TrEMBL record:
Molecular function GO labels: hexosyltransferase activity
Superkingdom in the source lineage: Bacteria
Species this protein is from: Proteobacteria bacterium 228
Glycosyltransferase subfamily 4-like N-terminal domain boundaries: 15-207
Domain (Glycosyl transferase family): residue spans on this chain: 221-390
The name this protein goes by in its record: Colanic acid biosynthesis glycosyltransferase WcaI
Gene3D superfamilies given in the database record: Glycogen Phosphorylase B (3.40.50.2000)
PANTHER family assigned: SULFOQUINOVOSYL TRANSFERASE SQD2
Lineage of the species this protein comes from: Bacteria, Pseudomonadati, Pseudomonadota
Pfam families on file: Glyco_trans_4_4, Glycos_transf_1
Xref: InterPro entries: Glyco_trans_1 (IPR001296), Glyco_trans_4-like_N (IPR028098), Glycosyltransferase_grp1 (IPR050194)
Length: 412
């Protein structure tokens, strides 16, 4: 099968969508498929393009047998709503040139990864001209996240004509793809609510390489490297530090737990990190440690040092986004505290599999404080979490099902 993947994030990004797109394409290439990718230089979650990549030029490279074509884009140092829109538009414009250079290659399937929705009109035009099947894979509902977090306006933004028009355009674009896939049942339900027919939907969850998390060593060495007192329990947040996480609540809880033998370890980068570090400094907290992202091969060890994993999001964010960090937490058999409302995907997961995690209401410092306390009293290993990961989100199983789904699309 010849597969062309079109999306703004790709390897070697270590977190989020870029990680999954990179692993997907590498697996497909290793299993005999021809794969090409049109993407941007890696910039996430630092919001900075580092050498040897450049935000100003086109570049082609090969990664794990995949031809990767990088396109220039604008990357704001401090993203705001307007700057994010300019950022997404810049990639849509520059990438269209490289995408249409692949018309003569004639792929069987084009997979357009959201974000960014800005690329979907270009993807649909390419699919029509090349006569290939089109799949739009939704990792994040951009509009839902934007309006849910109030990033697009004031308190009346939910009733604005701009919002209604934006969702109408989104619904029309989604309906034109041969398949609409997403990473959770609630996100597929949301697509259905947007007017996408059930037979047009395709389940394609994020995964974990569960075998990597079965036997982990080096935890004491890593704790010493991060200056964590050996007798302390660890409450770990690892991932993007952005607007939708609302990690200020973690700092508030850390302040209340200064006398406890608990270290709050916050690992990652993002637009909100500077503000979070400043808040911890203002409170003179000695039990909060910040660390940049560690190399991917150290991830199992990092997750293994945690007595409590923090999956933190603001209200409204959990409806639109299923945190990718949770897959590896489940695979390691970690105990976790999840901030989510009952009706969200995360909330329903906790209801369906009791004790898989401790669920608390988002943006509630008291509830988070209580939840972390409960989590730290539990055994470090959570068999329910690891069994779920092995059964439902193992990478090999998920990828084989994707190939079967794509072959079904091609046969129609």
């Amino acid at each position: 099968m010849k597969i062309l993947v079109y999306g703004i994030n790709y390897a070697p990004e270590l977190t989020g969508i870029g990680k999954y797109s990179g692993e997907m394409c590498s697996w497909l290439a290793a299993n005999g498929h021809e794969v090409r990718v049109v993407t941007a230089p890696p910039y996430y979650p630092d919001w900075s393009v580092s050498a040897p990549f450049s935000p100003y030029s086109y570049k082609t490279e090969w990664i794990d047998g995949v031809k990767v074509m990088r396109c220039p884009l604008y990357v704001p140092k401090k993203p705001s709503t307007i700057k994010r829109i300019l950022h997404l538009c810049s990639f849509a414009m520059s990438s269209g040139i490289r995408l249409f250079s692949q018309l003569s290659w004639r792929p069987d399937v084009l997979i357009c990864v959201v974000p960014t929705q800005f690329c979907s009109p270009i993807a649909l035009l390419y699919s029509s001209l090349s006569r290939c099947k089109s799949v739009i894979h939704i990792q994040d509902y951009e509009l839902d996240a934007m309006f849910g977090l109030g990033m697009a306006g004031g308190s009346n933004s939910s009733d604005s004509r701009v919002k209604r028009a934006a969702f109408a355009v989104e619904r029309w674009l989604l309906s034109k793809f041969h398949r609409v896939s997403s990473i959770s049942n609630s996100m597929l339900n949301k697509a259905n609510e947007k007017g996408i027919a059930t037979e047009q939907l395709m389940f394609f969850p994020n995964w974990s390489e569960t075998s990597r998390f079965l036997a982990v060593s080096g935890t004491d060495t890593l704790k010493a490297h991060l200056n964590i007192p050996p007798h302390h329990q660890v409450a770990l947040y690892s991932g993007n530090i952005g607007e939708k996480q609302g990690l200020e609540s973690v700092i508030e809880v850390a302040e209340r737990m200064q006398s406890d033998s608990v270290t709050f370890l916050i690992v990652g980068q993002g637009a909100g990190k500077e503000r979070l570090v400043l808040l911890a400094e203002q409170k003179r907290l000695q039990n909060v440690i910040f660390s940049p992202l560690l190399p991917y091969e150290q991830l199992p060890t990092l997750l293994s040092i945690a007595d409590c994993h923090l999956v933190i999001q603001k209200k409204g964010a959990a409806d639109a986004v299923l945190p990718s960090k949770l897959t590896n937490i489940l695979a390691i058999g970690g105990q976790s505290v999840i901030t989510a409302e009952c009706e969200t995907e995360l909330g329903m997961l906790c209801q369906q599999y009791p004790d898989i995690a401790v669920r608390v209401d988002p943006e509630n410092v008291e509830a988070l404080y209580q939840g972390i306390g409960i989590c730290l009293e539990k055994p470090r290993f959570n068999a329910i979490a690891q069994n779920y990961a092995t059964q439902f989100i193992d990478k090999e199983s998920v990828m084989k099902k994707l190939v079967l789904s794509l072959n079904t699309v091609l046969s129609r």
